[in-house]
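Fold this sequence, please.
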Amino acid sequence: MGISLTARIALTIIMVFLFAMSLTALLNLHKFDQLLTQVLRDRLAFTVEDLRSNLETRLNLGLPLDTMRHIQDTLEQRRLDDPNILSIEVFDPDGQVLFGTDRSFIGDLISPRWLDAFRAQTGVDVGGAASGRRTFVVHDHDAMVVGTPIVSNLGDNAGGIAIRYARAAIDRTEAATRRELMVQAAVVSAGVGVVIVVGVFAVMADIRRRLARIERQAKALAAAMDAAQDLGGVQDFTTAGLITVSAGGPGGFAARDANERDDGGTPAGEASPLEMDFRRFGRTAREAFGEIMRGRREIRRLDEMD
């Protein structure tokens, strides 16, 4: 069983709407991921800058970075404030860890990717002087790393500090947002789908009624044409008030539209553009029908002469 025209139109509109809704949801989700990463980066940068300020204050008092034992307790306390922080490390310009929340890392070298990002932001090589200070970000497979250089008041690069934040926490937030967005999109799509179906069927109802009336008139015209052909072209008939055919007159046929105009020559009632088009088509069809009947009579006359 085929699908009706109304259903096809409704399905087409719904499919276009779902495509647009899906595209919008994907773009919003991508935008949310970027915004979440930026907000998290700014929050971690604030924490790093606070720790850096504490270290630089003591550094400016003449204390070497590797002798600030109290910083170990400060780092561990900051680590406990947020369980998603994997570790916090303080390291020297060569990348050797001086203090850290994971004591097993103390004395080890930081990741080469960290060290490259650190040097790129400070503009130094090993043992060089710092030319500036900016926060650096490194994305590991399991964490996002945010760090910043530590610079003395003389402009010397004393080292750096970095925080590793669990990537799993970011993924959980993104997954929760993705589920919520999908639920909201499904609810909106269902509601809009119902509105589309109801609207299409309401609009098509009037068109179906008009087409049904035209179909009845066309069937009546076809029946009248068949009757006239069977009777040899001499038959008076009226099809739904559209045409009257007679054998008299120079052309052999006369046509009239009983519903098109009243006695005053004005439209008998309101007519849509579609109805007016079909009325013009009816007049053209009547003229063509008259020509066909005249041709059939001429053929019969020639046959009789033979």
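The domain at 5-178 is CATH 3.30.450.20 (Beta-Lactamase). The chain has two domains: 5-178, 231-305.
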